[in-house]
């Protein structure tokens, strides 16, 4: 390779100068690719300074933070940071800030908590978000429920509306994988004659209207087969997880077709157990919040 | 002239042989798999092979042998095919993109058929635009550029067809597989294992074709655009092979397991994923920019030295940056630090490229004002600069703690893909289509202007709405009230996205409308093809005898 500028492509063979671009005043490199040429513009100083700055930034980061592997280990960095520790520290800081009011819920006396207005003002907004992230998916963000998921915002309860009892349901679930879970099952009455199931379904569907004919043969079937769990007149409230059939609040629906399906196939809905996923204080906080959903709804409608 | 007429009789015969081989391979796949997606894919390959046999066989004695003077001309027939496929994939890929954007606003509108579920459509969008639209554009323009800047005809006439047809079969296998529910669950690498192996074969053919053509160049130096195209071809092959190493569950079905596991799998996936952005969506398109911008502007490249700095900076720094996709995960902190710092150092070479492109327009600003095609390329360079700045910024760990998992990331990607990648492709297409179809100009020159403003408006609406969405989301997720409790439940942060999702659908719709207009404009131009020769296509240097 020659270094003589006169021998380079595009150079004047006498002076060694190349063609100069009239717009920028820079020399071309002498290359030409199907009409494309290049200017021999020097590096702009700003680009070199910027490159140096980013390299300095990186070197500082490498010195301060964990950065380069060294066989089975790595450089720890002067700050000695560990992302797991940092995350746990921050979590702990948040927990500490929350402990001021959340500890009241560790082993609560719900009745006295509920009248502590200052505490409620702190706790209920937090409970609403906790409910939104954990419960709303099934029970609805306003607790209205939906097919298969009981409403929490009405005054009709499967087990009980007391916060203590709601906390038990939250902790251990219903039909959940928990040794102390509540168990509730609507058995299948598929052994019953189809005609009987149809008439029984029609009878159950008429219960909330108050116009049910208690002298009909279907009423006899009801007394024999259903009353043990749902109450003599279908009023529920026996604390076994069997809903009232007279209050109009249902889990799956109370039209004749749905009741017929329920009778034929049975039901075994699941509420998961939240102990282990939520802390004890959080469970109690949620229990109090859920118990008050019906009140707040009534207040709203008033 | 029909494409088959550009092939000699012996090339047509070899082509028939290859098409028969494809049909036999497809039949073997279908027969071995018997049912399921692999059998359908085998059937597709068989039908394609048989169709090619008929096309080539029917043409075997129809056309006279092309004259020996063909060797002193550039070989553009496969490039015309590639451009047409680019436009078809643009409409498909962007159309599905607008569809899934609408589903995010209105999920209840998902029809009851399995294949219309969001999870299946979303990779159809990403693969359709990246591989279908972007890939065809890259292959077609690279074959155009390497000939012009080397003053050499493509090394042979069959392998460009093998590359383009084979590549489109890969794209078709990929997207049809997703619709039928087959995926490797690796982002941008969802295609089943046999499609991956097929792509390796196609890609090696492409690499060989490119190298052989470069080796025949009549210019003493290799032009910058070819450095980038070559980096794109070479590195994509490496990335593709390593990330897709997998063991098929059976040799007769589409399912497979990756050989990597756990955090190593995640790291390799994002080493691949980020370098797919670097070498597929950046290096190749920089090659496009480095050719079509100076040619259209009729200006010399502003700085040769800056070209060198940015090329080596980009190919070196990008390789390290992938781990910034895994900040605050199980990936060790030190890998995150390296990813972050190399992403920051990447900024200057990236800006050097963008700056070099924009400074090249010095002395041609009046053309930028008057010529929508050049304006496409200018806007592409500007968005390239903006999105590379944003990328380096988002890679900084504390910034990433706000942006990670939010729609800001999606907005950032689209500022790159709509604003940079698609804009430079449209600029290249509007430059190429008149030349390749022998005309002075596009059939509807006014429509180019319309397309430009639709594309700019669509990109801005899309990107700005997702910036807002992402920052809102990130802030809502991390806000605690004074009592140490989260201020928002997750569903509230989802509900807050609704107006932004509506706007992004609108922005995507505007961009799609422009792309459809472009496809129609190109179709009209192709139908009114002339016989004008491009004066810039100087006679080739004498070719060595074959």
Compact summary:
The complex is a heterodimer of chains A (302) and B (546). Chain A has 11 helices and 2 strands; from the N terminus they run H-E-E-H-H-H-H-H-H-H-H-H-H.
Give a written overview of the molecule:
The complex is a heterodimer of chains A (302) and B (546). Chain A is mainly alpha-helical. Chain A has three domains: 45-74, no CATH class; 100-183 and 270-301, Cytochrome c-like domain (Cytochrome Bc1 Complex, Chain D, domain 2, Orthogonal Bundle), CATH 1.10.760.10; 194-265, Cytochrome Bc1 Complex, Chain D, domain 2 (Orthogonal Bundle). Chain A is built from eleven helices and two strands. Chain A has helices at 45-64, 83-102, 110-114, 117-134, 136-139, 163-172, 194-206, 217-225, 227-230, 256-265, 280-301; strands at residues 69-70, 73-74. Chain B has two domains: 1-73; 74-527, Cytochrome c oxidase-like, subunit I domain (Cytochrome C Oxidase, Chain A), CATH 1.20.210. Chain B is built from 18 helices and two strands. In chain B, a hairpin with a 7-residue loop joins strand 1 (246-248) and strand 2 (256-258). The chains are: A mainly alpha (302), B mainly alpha (546). The interface between A and B is large, with 62 and 58 residues.
Secondary structure category of chain A: mainly alpha
CATH architecture of the largest domain in chain B: Up-down Bundle
Class inferred from helices and paired strands of chain B: mainly alpha
User: What does the overall shape of chain A look like?
Assistant: elongated
Largest sheet of chain B: 2 strands, antiparallel
Number of helices of chain B: 18
Instruction: List unreliable stretches of 5+ residues of chain B.
Output: none
Query: What is the domain tally of chain A?
Result: 3
For the record, the count of structural domains of chain B works out to 2
- Please name the CATH architecture of the largest domain in chain A: Orthogonal Bundle
Count all strands of chain A and give the number: 2
Mean pLDDT of chain B: 94
Q: Strands of the largest sheet of chain B, in order across it?
A: 1-2
Tell me the CATH topology of the largest domain in chain B.
Answer: Cytochrome C Oxidase, Chain A
Q: Could you give the order of strands across the largest sheet of chain A? A: 1-2
Element string of chain A (H = helix, E = strand)? HEEHHHHHHHHHH
Largest interface in this structure: A-B, 62 and 58 residues
Treating each run of at least 4 consecutive H or I residues as one helix, how many helices of chain A?
A: 11
Number of strands of chain B: 2
